[in-house]
Specification:
mainly beta; globular; 22 strands
Length: 453
């Protein structure tokens, strides 16, 4: 059997940058990036999860990270672009049994795309394509192509404040085309399943990149109108393993006030739910997706911007497939039973479910989903980016049914045009039987320094 050597995309860009001839005029450059170091003090309280080794521990953490974007112009109509991110984490103490390793590195190929300009208004992309949609700060029903995030369980790059996901977001392997016309933009994309996911018992941080991005078939189409005066709606359709129709729009009510509305309707559920009957039958997969019926979600947001570039926002998000009160109780009763919370040690063959339920709960969030039905988000932020000034971002989300909530505060000040210091805190509050208190009330305080280029 012949063996094919695989050359990393960054290596292809480097080789391409050394060649110029015929119709090829290769020009490669690093467009932008950043590197930083931060210290984190992590705190946690008791949770329903119990084991011989504590599932979560207080810790002191050092995090080094780097992200960069490179682009090559190959011909007048052909170009290539790639983004890669990486971090290395060192923890002072052994983490909990449901957390990461004490010393651990993470590398992510966020995007690696070859783009062809077939016409002045038609572009075709192939490779690891990243596509995001939506106008909302919290949860965007219009964002149908989001993938599972590969961030570590106890650490993430906080240096990006409320934009931390950009460090971990990665595209899926496939093709996409965009057609720009006077009346609007048309997009088609296909992301086939390349690997069957047989690691559902583990958190997404343990999956390889292909499982996170290409474990299902997804075919996507969207249209965004551009000819309307105030509001330009987007229509999106996703087929394959999931079938969803989404609609969203955003526009100015006044010069300073923006209204955003997004909603979607799906055939069946879009994330896995606990099936209590499957637990009783001791099935290997107690989490399932009900493929019948219709599910809907909606998000509405108002954003006000002042003359000095300070934003104030409020958003509501609701979903019909969120757990009801009775389903919540079944969920937490099951967690308690598998962790000996009723004073009876569960049979050994059931103990595996404890870790599985922790992983599944974590993975719902990694997919950009929430477990409940109704949420309110409030936020404010500045974006002056002036040397010597302080920018801030403060945001909070509350589950309107169980009262649990999360809070994020991020402060940053540029020392020079390419160097900034930052500090902040992220915390979750709620009882052990609430969404944001499921893993115990948690808090991280952090400070760091980042270089931008």
């Amino acid at each position: 059997m012949s063996r094919v050597a695989r050359l990393p995309f960054s290596g292809i860009l480097l080789l391409a940058g050394t060649y110029s001839g015929g119709s090829w005029a290769v020009d490669c450059q690093i467009q932008r990036g950043y590197a930083g170091i931060e210290g984190i003090s992590s705190h946690t309280s008791d949770s329903l999860w119990q084991s011989e080794d504590p599932p979560f521990r207080n810790n002191v953490i050092a995090n080094l990270y780097l992200s960069s974007v490179g682009r090559c112009t190959l011909t007048e109509t052909l170009s290539a672009k790639a983004q890669a991110s990486g971090e290395y984490v060192l923890q002072a103490h052994q983490p909990g049994s449901l957390e990461d390793k004490r010393h651990q590195g993470l590398g992510i190929l966020n995007e690696a795309v070859v783009s062809w300009a077939a016409r002045d208004n038609l572009y075709i992309d192939a490779g690891k394509v990243r596509k995001t949609s939506g106008y909302l700060f919290s949860v965007a029903p219009l964002d149908l192509l989001r993938n599972i995030s590969g961030n570590m369980r106890s650490v993430r790059v906080f240096g990006l404040g409320d934009r931390w996901r950009n460090f971990y977001e990665e595209g899926a392997y496939g093709v996409s085309s965009s057609l720009y016309r006077n009346e609007g933009t048309y997009t088609l994309a296909a992301f086939p399943r390349l690997k069957r996911n047989d690691q559902r018992q583990e958190a997404g941080s343990e999956w390889d990149a292909v499982l996170r991005t290409n474990s299902t078939d997804r075919y996507y189409a969207s249209y965004t109108a551009t000819g309307l005066a105030a509001f330009n709606p987007t229509f999106s359709l996703l087929t394959g393993n999931q079938k969803t129709l989404a609609l969203g729009t955003s526009g100015n009510l006044t010069d300073n006030l923006i209204l955003s509305v997004e909603g979607s309707v799906s055939h069946g559920q879009t994330w896995r739910h606990l099936d209590s009957a499957a637990v009783v039958r001791n099935e290997r997969e107690p989490y399932k997706i009900r493929s019948s019926g219709a599910q809907a979600d909606i998000g509405v947001g108002l954003r006000y911007t002042t003359a000095d570039q300070t934003e104030y926002g409020a958003e509501y998000y609701g979903q019909s497939q969120g757990y009801s009160r009775s389903q919540w109780q079944d969920n937490f009763d099951t967690i308690r039973f598998f962790n000996g919370g009723f004073g009876v040690k569960p049979p050994p063959e059931f103990q595996q479910y404890s870790r599985m339920m922790a992983a599944e709960t974590d993975n719902v969030g990694r997919g950009g989903n929430l477990l409940g039905k109704h949420y309110l988000t409030l936020y404010t932020r500045t974006n002056k980016e002036q040397v010597g000034s302080i920018d801030w971002s403060i945001s909070g989300m509350v589950n309107l049914v169980d009262g649990s909530h999360v809070l994020n505060v991020h402060l940053t000040t540029p020392l020079k045009n390419n160097l900034e210091l930052y500090s902040g805190a992220a915390a979750s509050f709620g009882s052990k039987e609430s969404e944001f208190g499921t893993f115990g009330e948690k808090g991280n305080i952090y400070a760091g320094m980042r270089i931008n280029w």
